[in-house]
Specification:
The protein is 54% helix and 4% strand. By secondary structure, the protein is mainly alpha-helical. Helix 6 crosses helix 11 (240-255).
Length: 273
């Protein structure tokens, strides 16, 4: 099986796909920028996966099913998605937001393409920044009064499990999806991360995170290892030259703001609702 994955590891759904592949022992190639076929159809939406050269797929749940993970109920999928709400806090500090994306390592093996890729990636970061702020301003989703509430179901699921993982003796779909959420919260720290670390009601979930970190200790996109036991190394980051190229590209996005905003909203219209 030949698998290519497009997406940045700050996305929980990209993380879920990569974790799923890792769990199943399936080799894969990562792609930093969207393939032309993906860009034309869905813009910069991620993840996108191509299996054995077949057409790209973007539904992370169905992608995981292709790798022999069990389906998840609609109710539990909504509960997983609810656990992601703190992502709307990411752009509160634009400097931290952009710095977080600038540190992502481009997996492209070719030197010139790897460095040049940061110019294109700066637009993806700009797009995400505008998208999240658009959601906050236009849709105005209500933040939970207590971020622990969105994890209490999973705390109980961990307590009810007959193994170290939510799905028992080995990680299943629920483990993979929720651990992807945890990586998202840890990649650019937000309130939900601090809740997971400190809330006394989530001891079982912290134990589950520790079990997952042991399972994935050699996984190269593990952001949670810096915040939970056992402490593990952070992912490898882009070097200073790569970050400089990223910031040059980002500065260009803001310098051409009217044009880049138009492009962002055109691409947002391509995203399936």
């Amino acid at each position: 099986m030949r698998v290519t994955v497009y997406g940045a590891d700050h996305s929980p759904w990209v993380q879920a796909v990569l974790l799923g592949l890792r769990e199943k022992g399936i080799e894969y190639k990562e792609q930093f920028l969207p393939p032309l076929a993906v860009f034309r159809k869905w813009g910069v939406l991620m993840p996108a996966v191509s299996i054995d050269g077949k057409p790209w797929q973007i539904d992370s749940i169905k992608i995981l099913e292709n790798f022999d993970f069990d389906p998840i109920s609609d109710q539990e999928l909504r509960l997983v998605q609810n656990a992601w709400q703190s992502v709307l806090q990411r752009p509160r500090n634009p400097f931290r937001f952009f710095a977080g994306f600038a540190r992502i390592q481009n997996p492209e093996p070719h030197n010139f393409k790897r460095y040049a890729g940061y110019l294109g990636f700066s637009f993806i970061c700009f797009y995400m920044f505008v998208l999240i702020n658009f959601i906050k301003i236009v849709i105005r989703p209500k933040s939970p009064d207590d971020f622990a509430d969105q994890f209490l179901y999973w705390e109980q699921a961990a307590a009810d499990s007959n193994g170290p993982f939510l799905d028992g003796a080995s990680p299943g779909t629920r483990d993979i999806l929720l651990f992807g959420i945890v990586q998202c919260h840890a990649s650019i720290p937000v309130a939900a991360l601090h809740t997971l670390r400190d809330d006394a009601r989530l001891d079982g979930l912290r134990q589950w995170i520790g079990n997952m970190q042991v399972r994935f200790k050699d996984y190269p996109h593990l952001y949670s290892g810096a915040y939970f036991e056992p402490v593990l190394s952070r992912p490898e980051t882009a070097n200073l030259v790569q970050r400089l190229i990223f910031y040059i590209g980002l500065s260009t996005m803001f310098a051409l703001l009217p044009l880049t905003l138009v492009l962002v909203f055109v691409l947002m219209k391509q995203v399936p609702r």
